């Protein structure tokens, strides 16, 4: 017997679903895996920075640049011989120092020399070795100075330079000639 209360309604036909344009990935398990770490990349960057710091430190130490040293100790004045009239007047003994018409070095502005040569050479200013070229901003007293560039296998270059107070003299086109035998 059929129950009168039950009414059956017809079920509408189902439409087929369209296929997705890209297939969904298959999940094989429920465990979440972390993405690969970039620790290797960080170590490479840290190693490169460390090498760069070491190379820079070695270059600074080997260049002879003395950043920690005061410039006051590196002022060179011209070496001038005593005038012959003073030496004769003193009877051949120790020559007295003539009074200088110029203010003491502490009151005068310093001058600077910048020297470069091709090829590099040992540079002396007024008989004192400064280092090898290129040299930038060598602090000297104003006035005339003797520069000497020496390298084995090349002709020695000698020149006189007048440095103004507070000025910079640049000598950059010095070319040493090779000695041919």
Overall description:
The chain has 181 residues and is α+β, with helices and mostly antiparallel strands. The protein has a domain at 108-181: Immunoglobulins (Immunoglobulin-like), CATH 2.60.40.10. Helix content is 17%, strand content 25%. The strands form two sheets. Strands 3-2-5-6 form a four-stranded antiparallel sheet, with no helix packed on it. A three-stranded mixed sheet has the order 4-1-7, with no helix packed on it. The protein is rod-shaped.
Blueprint (SSEs and pairs):
Elements (H helix, E strand, L loop, with lengths): L38 H24 L21 H6 L21 E8 L3 E4 L2 E5 L2 E6 L2 E8 L6 E7 L4 E8 L6
Parallel strand pairs: 1-7
Antiparallel strand pairs: 1-4, 2-3, 2-5, 5-6
The helix content, as a percent range, equals 10-25%
Query: Mind telling me which CATH architecture of one domain this is?
Result: Sandwich
Unreliable runs: none
The largest sheet, given as strand count, sense and whether it forms a barrel, is: 4 strands, antiparallel
Shape: rod-shaped
User: What portion of residues belong to β-strands?
Assistant: 25-35%
Keywords:
2 helices; Immunoglobulin-like; alpha+beta; 181 residues; 17% helix; four-stranded antiparallel β-sheet; three-stranded mixed β-sheet
Short description:
The chain is α+β, with helices and mostly antiparallel strands and 181 residues long. The chain contains two helices and seven strands, in the order ααβββββββ.
């Amino acid at each position: 017997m059929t129950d009168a209360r039950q009414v059956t309604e017809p079920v509408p036909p189902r439409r087929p679903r369209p296929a997705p344009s890209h297939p969904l990935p298959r999940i094989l398990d429920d465990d979440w895996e972390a993405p690969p770490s970039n620790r290797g990349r960080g170590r490479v960057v840290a190693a490169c920075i460390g090498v760069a710091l070491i190379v820079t430190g070695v270059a600074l130490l080997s260049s002879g640049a003395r950043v920690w040293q005061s410039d006051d100790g590196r002022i060179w004045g011209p070496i001038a011989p005593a005038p012959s009239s003073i030496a004769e007047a003193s009877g051949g003994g120790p020559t007295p120092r003539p009074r200088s018409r110029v203010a003491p070095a502490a009151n005068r502005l310093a001058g600077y020399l910048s020297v470069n040569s091709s090829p590099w050479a040992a540079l002396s200013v007024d008989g004192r070795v400064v280092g090898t070229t290129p040299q930038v901003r060598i602090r000297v007293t104003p006035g005339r100075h003797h520069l000497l560039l020496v390298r084995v296998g090349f002709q020695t270059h000698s020149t006189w330079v007048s440095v103004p107070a507070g000025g910079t003299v640049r000598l950059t086109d010095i070319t040493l000639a090779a000695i041919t035998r």
